[in-house]
Amino acid sequence: MNNNEESYFDQIIGPRLRALPPPDDNGLTLEDKWWINRFEYLKEHGYMMRPRYRPGWKPSYDPKQVIEKVDAEDGQEMIHPDVMDALRMSDSLVVALKRVKVSTGEERSATLFSNDANKLDPRNHCVRLLEVLPIPDEDDRKFLVMTWMRPVMNPRFRTVGEGVQFFKEMIEGLQYMHEINVAHRDCSLNNVAMDANSMYTRPYHPIDLKKGYNWSGKASHHSRTRRPPRYYFIDFGHSREYDPSQTRPLEYALKSGGYTPPEGLEGTPCDPFATDVFLLGNLIRTSFLDGDPRLHKPGVSGFEFLRPLVTDMVADDPSKRPTMVEVLSRFSQIINKISWWKLRSRAIKRDEAPLSKPFRAIYHIFWTTSMLVLRKPAIPCPKPLH
Question: Where in the numbering of this chain does the Protein kinase domain appear (predicted)?
Answer without folding.
Answer: 64-335
